[in-house]
Design a protein that fits this description.
Iron/ascorbate family oxidoreductases protein; four-stranded antiparallel beta sheet; eight-stranded mixed beta sheet
Length: 356
């Protein structure tokens, strides 16, 4: 039997359990199944312990905040946001609700398992499971909040009210951050909002169970986000890393260490294109969880809500000049997202595809 056929059978068998990685851990396994093994080369980039991504304090005077967000978005593509509008109690209850869903008994949780979203909701393990060369050690509850709202009854009851509330909370933070970014670019504060960039909203509630052999796999492979902006809520366990090119040209990982009460914000591919490379979408990954407790995170993705064939996006004309010509062609959002979904998570090179 060939390796590819062997893998296809194993992947299908894993998916049909409808129990996800959590089910593997509950079964008492002490080794990582081969379908989760990642090539050593993908795990060998060094970590720069002396570096940390920028922190932006929203309580500072607005001109200072604008400058720091512009600098972080241009030079890092990632930053931690503190003194935002969301109470810590809301953040904690959201994390707890997501954990409660993923730790439901298998017989209850598996009823929600599907690769074809129902009412904008799907629970699954690895969205690219059948396309990837190696699976990642995580399960996910996905909810599409816009442009078409989800059917609320399809969101698991154990976390329904908390996630609906979190969508609204994250949206308001994204509105504020987008406004500050726009001002940093010399645009009106509502320019991105006018492009419907708050209307296309997706939420991924990730659960990373403890891994018996974390050196063999990852929680999420090396990738960029095909969005305008990502607002991430993470618990205290950590594991997220952003890629950074250092002075000698080598690439290193930088740990995005959890800060109590902070949110993580990162630039997506679409924002890099719209800003004509002024802001950078950077590669990131999540290492496999080596702690005794499952890691939980909630990623909110913001994209344009206008999906008509005739509505196109590309570098904003206001940012272009003879010295700064467009570097990307125009396209519609469905074409952009379709190309993302057609590939394995850690092999997507969307920005390169749309370059002029």
């Amino acid at each position: 039997m060939s390796v590819s056929i062997d893998r296809a059978i194993a992947v299908k068998a894993f998916d049909e359990t409808k129990a996800g990685v959590k089910g593997l851990v509950d079964s008492g396994i002490t080794s990582v199944p081969f379908i989760f093994h990642h090539p050593t080369a993908n795990l060998s980039i060094p970590v720069a312990a002396h570096l940390s991504i920028p922190t932006v304090d929203l309580s500072l005077p607005r001109p200072i905040t604008i400058d720091r967000i512009r600098s972080a978005s241009r030079d890092w593509g990632f930053f931690q946001l503190i003194n935002h509008s969301i109470p810590i109690s809301t953040m904690q209850s959201t994390i707890s609700a997501v954990r409660a869903f993923h730790e439901l008994p298998t017989a209850v949780r598996s009823k929600h398992y599907t690769r074809s979203p129902v009412g904008g909701v799907a629970y699954l393990s690895n969205g690219d499971l059948f396309k990837s060369s190696a699976a990642s050690w995580r399960d996910t509850l996905q909810i599409s909040f816009g442009p078409v709202p989800p059917e609320l009854d399809e969101i698991p009851e154990v976390c329904r009210s908390e996630l609906v509330k979190w969508d609204e909370s994250a949206k308001e933070v994204a509105r504020e951050v987008m406004g500050l970014m726009c001002e940093g670019l010399g645009l009106g504060p509502r320019r991105l909002e006018e492009l419907s960039c708050l209307e296309g909203r997706g939420m991924s509630c990730h659960y990373y169970p403890p891994c018996p052999e974390p050196h063999l796999t990852v929680g999420a492979g090396n990738h960029t986000d095909p969005v305008i902006l990502t607002v991430l809520l993470q618990d205290e366990i950590g594991g997220l890393r952003a890629k950074r090119k250092v002075e000698d040209g080598h690439e290193v990982w930088v740990d995005v260490k959890p800060i109590p009460g902070a949110l993580v914000v990162n630039v997506g591919d679409l924002l890099q294109i719209i800003t004509n490379d002024e802001f950078k979408s950077v590669h990131h990954q999540v290492v496999a969880n080596s702690s005794d407790e499952a890691r939980v995170s909630v990623a909110c993705f913001f994209n344009p809500g206008r999906r008509e064939e005739s509505t196109t996006y590309g570098p904003l004309p206001e940012l272009l000049s003879s010295e700064n010509p467009p570097r990307y062609r125009n396209f519609n959002v469905n074409d952009f997202l379709g190309r993302f979904l057609s590939k394995e998570l850690n092999t997507k090179t969307l920005i390169e595809f749309f370059k002029l």
